[in-house]
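Data card: per-record layout.
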Amino acid sequence: MSPSRLRVFGFLAAGCLASVTAAAAELTPEDWAKIARGDVIVRSLPAGEAAAGRVWAAVLIPAPVSTVWNVMLDVEHAPEFVPGLRRARRIERHGPSEIIEHTVKYSWLLPEVTYRFRADYRPQEQIDFQRISGDLRALTGTWTLRPTPDGTGTVVTYSVMLDPGFLVPQWLVRQSLAHNLPAVLRATRQRATAPPPSPAGDPRPR
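The structure for this 206-residue chain is written out next.
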């Protein structure tokens, strides 16, 4: 376990869980132990729709909120590191909101889909998104970012409800999301903690 993760887990294990923000408080002590080890927590939740799936996931990223936030706003480069994301582009900007188009292959069990969604930003805290057009019938979700007590890490949670709009069992949608979300969170963690690229002409070996 890295020193930053040890500090985070030690702080929480000492009984200071109440000092963590409300969004992170839905994590149990067992959950904190898991994310401190580098695990990703995933929970499938009731969706209330016959063909929909709803999944929640959480991860601890050993990087400050500002770094993680910048990674999440890097729409143009997201297909380079987000599993299943084939294409991504900004369509419009309206103050703290954007219209973004994604082409995604959630898993081999589901077909490739292209859709547009509205992303509403609460800087360095939260992103709410909702499908507005495209192949899916419904897609809504939320990203939250909360600093760890010592400020060296970020607890990221990601919840999503997906209704593909075509005939497919709910369990299959949930299974696809439960597989995709951890991969997305691990990829985000890897991107946020990767060393910056060497500048042109840097003589250091690569």
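Known properties of this structure: The first helix runs from residue 3 to 16. The beta strands are 41-45, 53-61, 85-94, 97-104, 113-122, 126-134, 138-147, 154-163.

See the next section for split statistics.
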